[in-house]
Design the sequence.
């Protein structure tokens, strides 16, 4: 699987799972569908961006930094829309970005030379 | 009259010293000696560079040693690979002894070098680099026949060279078996395949045996660390007494060692479910660690919110 596709699949999957954890928060359970859709879309966009970065840069540490920063940024935007739960949203968001960056760079295949 | 050992050694040295009259070489000193001859460090005056001159001893056994040395030179000259010593010249000296000139390899023998390599993966990578020239020679129809740590040199920049092709022979064509020719050396006990020791037919699997024994020796350098079962199985398969139970070639042996290095399942070992799970956990430890970190962080937030 190439790096962009790997980033897309992993980012989308982890985003969906991250959204589903909102079910454990009783006050958020009513909006679970919206949260899961938003989190999945966020993961998809982040995954594609991380995949593009991984393809261009080819460095594991740089991709980890980029993934973490992107995860933090997206999680911050989500928390900012809600105006609360900054810490609860941003810490797991950063780890998801880190994980997506690692998996994409480590397991994604580089493009074959033309 | 009884000669002292030192005097005897000096006499032997004088007798062994080559007569380089009429050659472009100037003697610098001895490098080493083997059963058949000796290797000298000489200066090639044409190019102002040091080369190694391998010279057969004073012929006491007819022309056979000289022919064997020149055959070795021809075998090496026909194989161009970074893991093989390039031959520059061959012929006869003024005193009639056969010689060939090759690159002067500086460094340490593998058995000496391994004591300075404590990490198992590093030792396995070295082993893989020994396999490369041997597999290359097999692909060109040549069997080494005497693979052992003292015939492998590790240079100062980490270059690995397989030396001493004195027992090399042509491999049989695919599907055919070859018999060891009369009058050739057999090999080194402990590194020699049983069929080679008994003078039977040999093919590339004789070198697989030698490489398996070399891998075993490489692993024995650090006996305090436990030997992974998969590696023990690779050694056992490569050094199987039954030639048909061995890896069919060096490429397959090297591939199995590479799989072990990469945390993949090796062909030689049937692992249990627990071992498989442990291997996969080890192989993907960073990803598994990150997933655990995420689960812990998420779990803590859920727990403290309640």
Sequence:
């Amino acid at each position: 699987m190439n790096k962009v596709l790997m980033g897309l699949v992993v980012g989308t999957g982890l985003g969906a799972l991250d959204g589903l954890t909102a079910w454990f928060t009783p006050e958020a359970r009513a909006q679970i569908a919206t949260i899961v859709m938003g989190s999945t879309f966020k993961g998809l966009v982040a995954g594609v961006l991380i995949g593009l970065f991984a393809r261009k840069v080819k460095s594991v540490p740089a991709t980890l930094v980029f993934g973490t920063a992107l995860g933090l940024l997206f999680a911050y935007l989500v928390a900012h829309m809600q105006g609360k739960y900054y810490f609860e949203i941003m810490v797991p968001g950063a780890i998801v970005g880190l994980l997506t960056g690692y998996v994409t760079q480590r397991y994604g295949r580089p493009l074959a030379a033309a | 009259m009884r000669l002292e050992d030192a005097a005897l050694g000096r006499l032997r040295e004088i007798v062994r010293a080559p007569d380089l009259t009429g050659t472009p070489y100037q003697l610098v000193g001895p490098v080493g000696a083997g059963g058949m001859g000796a290797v000298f460090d000489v200066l090639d005056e044409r190019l102002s560079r040091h080369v190694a001159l391998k010279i057969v001893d004073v012929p006491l056994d007819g022309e056979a040693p000289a022919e064997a040395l020149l055959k070795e030179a021809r075998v090496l000259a026909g194989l161009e690979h970074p893991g093989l010593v390039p031959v520059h010249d061959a012929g006869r000296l003024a005193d009639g002894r056969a010689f060939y000139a090759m690159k002067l390899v500086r460094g340490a023998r593998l058995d000496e070098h391994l004591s300075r390599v404590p990490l198992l993966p590093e030792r396995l990578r070295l082993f893989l680099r020994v396999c490369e020239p041997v597999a290359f020679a097999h692909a060109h129809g040549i069997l080494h026949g005497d693979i052992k740590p003292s015939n492998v040199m590790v240079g100062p920049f980490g270059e690995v060279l397989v030396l001493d092709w004195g027992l090399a022979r042509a491999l049989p064509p695919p599907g055919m078996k070859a018999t060891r020719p009369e009058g050739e050396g057999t090999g080194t006990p402990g590194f020699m395949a049983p069929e080679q020791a008994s003078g039977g037919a040999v093919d590339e699997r004789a070198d697989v045996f030698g490489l398996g024994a070399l891998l075993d020796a490489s692993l024995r350098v650090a006996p305090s660390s436990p030997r992974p079962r998969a590696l023990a199985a690779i050694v056992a398969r490569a050094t199987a007494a039954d030639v048909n139970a061995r890896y069919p070639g060096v490429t397959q042996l090297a591939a199995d060692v590479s799989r072990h290095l990469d945390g993949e399942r090796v062909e030689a070992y049937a692992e249990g479910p627990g071992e498989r799970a442990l291997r996969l956990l080890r192989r993907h430890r960073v990803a598994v660690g990150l997933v655990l970190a995420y689960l812990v962080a998420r779990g803590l937030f859920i727990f403290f919110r309640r």
